Amino acid sequence: MRRLHLPHRISPLAALGPGIALCLALTLVSIGLQRLEEDVFGHPYVEALVIAILLGMAMRTLWQPGPLWRSGIAFSAKQLLEVAVMLLGASISFAAILASGPVLLAAIVATVAVTIAASFAISRLLGLAVRMSILIACGNAICGNSAIAAVAPVIGAGSDDIASSISFTAILGVLMVLGLPLLIPLLGLSAGQYGILAGLTVYAVPQVLAATVPAGLVATQIGTVVKLVRVLMLGPVVVGLSLLAPRFGETVAGPNPAGRLRLFKLVPWFILGFLVLAACRSLGLVPDPAIAPITRVAGILTVVSMAALGLGVDLRVIGRVGSRVTAAVTLSLVLLLLVSLGLIFVLRLG
């Protein structure tokens, strides 16, 4: 009798294997390509996260995964991404946020808040759906692809929305790195001012390094600090969205016919885990040597999830919204640039 029941016990786990293995294979290729970029250029222009979703999309156009693969791909796209978001809490230190100084901290918070609100409004005016608008707004205001990946499970975004927002954001992110140094002579920016500008506008931490190295060590150091504090804003934004999502009803969070206020309905389990880890980190309960491995695992799981999302993308959907997404991301980026420059000059930062 035990032998008869054994296959039924292991079948759910076994069913996940092929899909997860496929996503892991795409992840390894993506990480390898990013390392190749680092060896050739000194830094990655296109991160493994973006490469993974593009590889998944390319494979999906040539081959549609059958039932053997679907459960593992779905698990990788949802559950593994939620675990990755939770683990990011271990890298959040409230002391690091306060250490940036009250004026600069206020400027960063104001930039993130204004940009999220304005980017969301721009996206909605262009006719984009609520989920897509939230992804573009958070990605543009905080840290590009990483913010999109973190916010997506909170608002229940679909693979097409995630792929569209990440793809176009990634392209403009690279253009931003290449074009931002041109503002130094045009606006007469000091090294400190340019460092703050790069930290407030460039999407990813490695891209901040790429954009500030031409301006010198001071710009690189200031830009990195500002960018890291800006990334820390992801925590409050994600928690806030998890609390606000039920208010959107079916538009974002889905219906709640029973009308009951359950804890996990208001705040998803992985956000609670995120907050617990952030509190432990701030209280010194998470040792410093453990931060890098935890962050690395979270990064790898995110790449695996992006590969899975790419495998579920319908390129026809992206094609239908492509021009509007491009316009929304571009206008939002221009707005972010103007807000950041305004704060730098008005508050005399740098």
From TrEMBL:
Give the way it sits in the membrane. Multi-pass membrane protein
Location in or out of the cell: Cell membrane
Q: Where are the transmembrane segments?
A: 12-33, 45-63, 75-97, 103-122, 134-156, 162-184, 196-219, 225-245, 266-284, 290-313, 325-347
Q: Which UniProt keywords apply?
A: Cell membrane, Membrane, Transmembrane, Transmembrane helix
* Highest taxon of the lineage: Bacteria
One GO cellular component term:
plasma membrane
Query: Which Pfam family, any one, appears in the UniProt record?
Result: Cons_hypoth698
Its main subcellular localisation, reduced to a broad class, is membrane
The record's listing under PANTHER family reads: INNER MEMBRANE PROTEIN YEIH-RELATED, UPF0324 INNER MEMBRANE PROTEIN YEIH
User: What is the similarity comment for this entry?
Assistant: Belongs to the UPF0324 family.
Q: What is this protein called?
A: Sulfate exporter family transporter
